[in-house]
What we know:
The chain is an all-alpha fold. It is built from nine helices and no strands.
Amino acid sequence: MAEVAAPRRSRITPERAAELYEAVLDLLREVGYDALTMDAVAARTRSSKATLYRQWGGKAELVVKALRHSKPGNVGEIDTGSLRGDLHALVTMDDDCTMEQNSALMRGIAMAIHQNADLRQAFQEQLIEPEMAEFQRVLQRAVDRGEVRPDCPALDFMLHMMVGGFVTRALLDDRPPTQEFLISYVDAVVLPALGVPAV
């Protein structure tokens, strides 16, 4: 009987991976995606480049995993009993300081996504699609509770509205979003579009 090779275990502990992810995000903030290299990550983290490639395959995968790791919580775990409560919890997962850091980081990543197909694919598969699935569960609970009509046309544009609140604040006001701004935005724009009272 032929022996079956055991799956190769990762040599990187979760704590070490967290250190690497933090270093990757720091480098992204300093130099941007295009100038970030695996050599720079290896030097900053005192790792071998071979280990980085073996564990993550390449720069795009490593960057997206670092972005995923930096997320403060799981959208799908939010369940306050009301859509208003859920959306308020969602937009306050990060404090204002973290939002400011992430706003600058995401602006740089957004530019790189348009120019790098591998980054775009990894971002779509590992961040966008899972987030959309979790967000749909939040919305479905609101429909199941009777807060939102199942045929409400705004349901198809919820993610666009939520992302728009983050992006346009920096674009139009040249300021990062804050918890106060996003809560006001949810109450004034998002909930009325869904036919949900904001009080």
